[in-house]
């Protein structure tokens, strides 16, 4: 069995796990989650109505890799990566490749996306940071910032102590190194050392005395497992209330505009169709190349004849011409979407009204208050095309920086078919469009519906035998298994024989 992480990484990370989890939860209570605005030059971030001093730690990419800030060429020489560079210096010589290699491949982990959280928590502990800000920067990718602002207080031992120690003693369990055992002792002792508490190590237990006289007792099993943890008062009774951790002059900036996710009432219409529509885009490209389109230049749109004309290098047979219908026009400067008169668009607008979002059925839709208007339009146009039996979507530049979207309606373009070689690209592309704009409350449910929509659109049987972690679609003897991360999003799509272990 391959270890999840190196021994050296565990040696650096585990002593901090108890207090880091306590601190992470305190930060999220003090600074509410919300839309994030960064100023890397100033070393600040805005979230939940507060402005905080931060440093760029690293980023996680859709391919399951982690890039440390100091290894990102875009930030070379920038003060934004000072904390990442400090971390590199602190662990120099410790021999932990997870910290010393600029690009860390996490694909050997059961959940690479969760592994990025692990790296960030470990780094937070080594740095003694006061919190983490995690946000989506594109597709399913994430950026991680460490909070350095002294206005964020350090957590004090108290109500979170027991839960933090229990979770910390399990979070980085690694069967390859630990077998059936654990690592509770180092977590408890690291917690006491961080808080500067008196420790008393006895047979099968560790005790620590808090500032107010409360006593922490951690029972350690034979295999270094945490068999129990309790906090009592100085006399063994109910614990005394401890001092709070009040923020010290957190800078309020006002809540600012909280951007709306994609309309939830439209998702039942979108999710069964989005991946299928993207598969149809690929089928359109195949048809055009087979017909002689090799220039890769975009087509010309003739509104009078409702046709798209693709130039070819050969004079005979000349341009490839396909019929189409305009879906609408995006004005990114004004963040508006204007619907055109077409059956597919009309069906989607009706679904918007029925789903409780009449504003998306208006002739002109104001997207300025929504997350990533470009993603929203890509989702809307693909769904409209699928509803109207379109054979692909084409985006065309229009004067003034606008973009016209046209649905190909030509029956000469073949309908897409189930393709084992492309299912991964199609489903992951759909997830990349949806993830940045999806409501977070039901992300796993919605991502499963997106994947299931692809399989059902092509009449493929689905396998629901893997629990919440995966969903399978059968291509004869082969299976495309969609794997979901801990936060509910799609992590990857694996191809193999039906039912074979992954």
Quick take:
By secondary structure, the chain is of the alpha+beta class. The protein has 14 helices and 23 strands.
Weakly predicted, low-confidence segments: none
Q: What is the SS-derived class?
A: alpha+beta
Oligomeric state: single chain
Give the termini separation. 14 Å
What's the alpha carbon Rg, rounded to whole Å?
A: 27 Å
Give a short account of the largest sheet: 8 strands, antiparallel
**Number of E-type strands:** 23
Question: Which range best describes the helical content: under 10%, 10-25%, 25-40%, 40-55%, 55-70% or over 70%?
Answer: 25-40%
- Beta percentage is 25-35%
Rough shape? elongated
- Count, helices: 14
Q: How confident overall, as mean pLDDT?
A: 94
What does this structure look like?
- With 502 residues, this protein is of the alpha+beta class.
- The chain is 30% helix and 25% strand.
- The chain is built from 14 helices and 23 strands.
- The strands form four sheets. Strands 1, 2, 3, 4, 5, 6, 7 and 12 form an eight-stranded antiparallel sheet that branches. Strands 13, 14, 15, 16, 17, 18 and 19 form a seven-stranded antiparallel sheet that branches.
- The protein starts with 6 loop residues before the first helix and ends in a 5-residue tail after the last strand.
- The mean pLDDT is 94.
């Amino acid at each position: 069995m391959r270890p999840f992480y190196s021994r050296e990484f565990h040696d650096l990370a585990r002593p901090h796990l108890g207090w880091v989890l306590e601190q992470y939860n305190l930060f999220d209570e003090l600074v509410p989650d919300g839309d994030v605005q960064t100023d890397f030059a100033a070393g600040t971030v805005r979230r939940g109505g507060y402005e905080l001093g931060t440093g760029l730690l690293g980023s996680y990419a859709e391919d399951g890799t982690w890039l440390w800030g100091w290894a990102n060429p875009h930030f070379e020489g920038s003060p934004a990566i000072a904390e990442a560079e400090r971390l590199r210096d602190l662990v120099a010589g410790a021999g932990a490749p997870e910290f010393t290699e600029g690009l860390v491949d996490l694909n050997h982990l059961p959940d690479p996306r969760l592994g990025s959280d692990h790296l960030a928590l470990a780094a937070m502990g080594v740095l003694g940071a006061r919190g983490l800000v995690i946000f989506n920067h594109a597709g399913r990718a994430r950026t991680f910032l460490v909070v350095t602002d002294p206005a964020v207080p350090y957590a004090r031992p108290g109500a979170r102590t027991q839960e933090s120690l229990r979770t910390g003693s399990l979070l980085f369990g690694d069967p390859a190194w630990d077998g059936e055992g654990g690592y509770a002792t180092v977590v408890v002792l690291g917690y006491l050392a961080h808080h500067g508490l008196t420790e008393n190590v006895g047979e099968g237990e560790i005790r620590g005395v808090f500032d107010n006289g409360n006593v922490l007792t951690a029972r350690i099993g034979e295999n270094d497992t945490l068999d129990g943890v309790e906090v009592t008062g100085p006399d063994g009774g109910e614990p005394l209330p401890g001092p709070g951790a009040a923020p010290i002059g957190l800078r309020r900036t006002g809540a600012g505009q909280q951007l709306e996710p994609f309309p939830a009432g439209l998702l039942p219409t979108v999710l069964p169709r989005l991946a299928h529509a993207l598969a149809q885009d690929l089928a359109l490209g195949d048809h055009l190349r087979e017909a002689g389109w090799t220039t890769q230049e975009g087509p010309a749109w003739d509104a009078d004849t409702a046709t798209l004309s693709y130039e070819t290098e050969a004079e005979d047979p000349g341009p490839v011409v396909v019929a189409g219908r305009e879906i609408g026009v995006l004005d990114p400067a004004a963040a508006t979407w204007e619907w055109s008169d077409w059956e597919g668009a009309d069906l989607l607008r009706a679904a918007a009204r029925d789903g409780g979002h009449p504003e998306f059925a208006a002739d002109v839709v104001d997207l300025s208050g929504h997350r990533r208007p470009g993603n929203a339009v890509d989702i809307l146009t693909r769904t409209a095309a699928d509803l109207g039996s379109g054979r692909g979507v084409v985006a065309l530049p229009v004067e003034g920086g606008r973009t016209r979207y046209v649905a190909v309606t030509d029956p000469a373009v073949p309908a897409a078919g189930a393709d084992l070689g492309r299912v991964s690209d199609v489903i992951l592309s759909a997830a990349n469009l949806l993830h940045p704009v999806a409501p977070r409350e039901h992300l796993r449910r919605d991502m499963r519906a997106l994947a299931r929509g692809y399989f059902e659109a092509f009449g493929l049987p689905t396998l629901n035998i893997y629990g919440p972690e995966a969903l399978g679609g059968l291509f004869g003897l082969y299976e495309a298994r969609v794997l979901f991360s801990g936060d509910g999003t799609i992590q990857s799509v694996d191809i193999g024989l039906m039912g074979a272990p992954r």
